[in-house]
Amino acid sequence: MTPVEKWAEQVRAGEVRAVSRAITAIENHAPEAEELLRLLFPHTGRAYLTGVTGAPGTGKSTLVDRLAAYHRKQHEQVGVIAVDPTSPYSGGAILGDRIRMQGHAGDAGTFIRSMATRGFLGGLARATAEVALLLDAAGKRHVLIETVGVGQDEIDIVRLADCVLVVMVPGLGDDIQNMKAGLMEIGDIFVLNKADREGADRLEQQLLAMMSLVMPRDGWHPPVLRTVASENKGIPELAETVAKFQKHFAASGERERKHVEHWKKRLIELLESRLLERALGGAGGEKRLAELAAEVAERKKDPFTAVREILTKSGLAN
Amino acid sequence: MTPVEKWAEQVRAGEVRAVSRAITAIENHAPEAEELLRLLFPHTGRAYLTGVTGAPGTGKSTLVDRLAAYHRKQHEQVGVIAVDPTSPYSGGAILGDRIRMQGHAGDAGTFIRSMATRGFLGGLARATAEVALLLDAAGKRHVLIETVGVGQDEIDIVRLADCVLVVMVPGLGDDIQNMKAGLMEIGDIFVLNKADREGADRLEQQLLAMMSLVMPRDGWHPPVLRTVASENKGIPELAETVAKFQKHFAASGERERKHVEHWKKRLIELLESRLLERALGGAGGEKRLAELAAEVAERKKDPFTAVREILTKSGLAN
Predict the structure, then answer these.
(1) Do both B171 and B292 map to the same domain?
(2) Does residue B257 belong to any structural domain of this protein?
(3) What's the domain range around A170?
């Protein structure tokens, strides 16, 4: 058994340190991560991915925390990937393993990992997708992916999920409401959190009014659920609604279609990184790129000619 | 003279319809757009790009409007690219040419174009960069690029600019303040707009406190300027500060370094799209990709093996 084969066995057994080490390898785009994922791949496809998104301040983390606790009480293993919005541009928290949900510390059935929103080689969406595969192989039946609902990157991430929860709270300003418009289209279930706050009724009415304009997909009308996550209110009902959604789409083929779309995109990304490696990976490739970029910046050469030169040099021109 | 050569001449002469048609070609990734940009490229590099970013509701559009009017009074030609946040996911406004700034309607010296945040072939950052080149070739000495300051895409766009203005207003909640943290690092000049509102002094103090933690770049300490754009207050001072910034960095070589970095990234993107075209562009390429994605989704094949097959088939395997 090779070291990577042994590592894969440990991941499949759910050993926390092996899983942690694998995530770090994925984050760093380390060569062994690919071999590991290749070995683990046939053992994936069993986890149900729930994406949780919403503006900052909507209480997503607490909600995810309580959902995780709910599943643990049902003796189901849970993985949590928190795409960390606290450091979006500095990259300081990239490798930090923040144990945020103190209640789960020491519970081997819950694996929690924070990921910063910047600095990943090959993109955060790729890294998140690979970490989700890994947790799937490690036997986590529920993988919860938490992101702040802003920006294309994070929309891409949340689209990985089988079911998307959009979290809203009463009392955020109109500017925030404007940002939410796009979230209407990706939400499978809407969560009205902090529902004990003033304005909850009005927000629910607004949501229902907006949703009446959205076409139901395959007979699913996205419901609005009220929760007070900090007091654990509405959590079982939310988990049951997710289960209902899962059941609804198990028959329709929608989930399969979504997965094929996902893999099309991922195969293209992989192709791109392979081909770029060949075009620029050789000795002097990076240096040649920098020289050409300087010539283009000085308008000595146009970018299309520069790219043709790289392709010719690397034997990839046709 | 070929039709594209004639088109390029018209763009260089600043003919509005030729420029409009070129932007549409860029947005659609039409083959003639590349030929056009290749012809125009030697005539670019003279425009100064100012990025304007900030949360929704900070009054960026009005500010951009007033800056454009200011430059026009100086008899300088202006181009405005507004990356439209109103329809981030539906794609409905993609090709819409929205004349938003009524004051400039009919003024041939100001060219305004809105771009939606989704649905661009090859990415919005690419399209924005190419439209900026086009406006540059069309003789616009000032190109103002307006984006909502959320998400990686838009950060990438604003990074195109030679000078980045970050717009803030008093009275947005703490949640918004949190999102702003990352903007601190990309701002060259901070604009405290709606400065007649309550809380302006407190926000200015917070900004200055935050900025004291950020290292000045090449001797430039990002200043905080107060404006009331809707009443045209503080606009000349802002334009002069941008000019001061431009002068400050003209000597230091920082702008050149930024441009070389930009072109490195753009050359990589171009390479990727060229290579992908070769790997998947042939007859049956798309169909083969869909079949492989389905096999991967069913776990009949791992993604790495699938990609190797595509490369072998297209003669790109090494």
Answers:
(1) no
(2) no
(3) 45-252
With an 8 Å Cβ cutoff, are B34 and A306 in contact? no
- In this complex, the residue of B87, B178, B186 whose CB is nearest that of residue A56 is B178
> Is residue B261 situated within a structural domain?
no
How far B108 CA sits from the closest chain A CA (Å)?
27
Look at residue B318 and tell me if it is in a domain. Answer: no
Q: Is the distance from CB of B267 to CB of B126 less than 8 angstroms?
A: no
pLDDT, tens digit only, all 318 positions of chain A: 999 999 999 999 999 999 999 998 988 888 899 999 999 999 999 999 999 988 777 888 899 999 999 999 999 999 999 885 443 333 323 223 333 444 455 566 778 777 765 444 456 778 889 999 999 999 999 999 988 765 666 677 777 899 999 898 887 754 444 445 556 778 899 999 999 998 899 888 888 877 776 667 778 889 999 999 999 999 999 999 999 999 998 877 778 888 898 899 889 988 888 888 888 877 778 889 999 999 999 999 999 999 999 999 888 876
Structure tokens at A49: 């991915």
Q: State whether B100 and B217 are in the same domain.
A: yes
Collect all residues of chain B within an 8 Å Cβ-Cβ radius of residue A176: 175-176
**Which amino acid type is present at position A83?**
V
Helix A254-280, helix A235-252: angle, nearest 10: 80
Residue B198: count of CB within 10 angstroms of its CB: 8
Cβ-based contacts of B85 with chain A (< 8 Å): 178-179
Across the interface, of B86, B118, B175, the residue whose CB is closest to A57 is B175
Q: The whole model's pTM is what?
A: 0.69
Residues in chain A within 8 Å Cβ distance of B302: 37-38, 41-42
| CB pairs A-B closer than 8 Å | 201
CA distance B98 to B115: 9
Strand partners, A143: A49, A79
Q: Which amino acid is at B8?
A: A
Q: How many domains does chain A have?
A: 2
Please give the Cα distance from A17 to A10 (Å, whole number): 9
CB contact under 8 A, B316 and A266: no
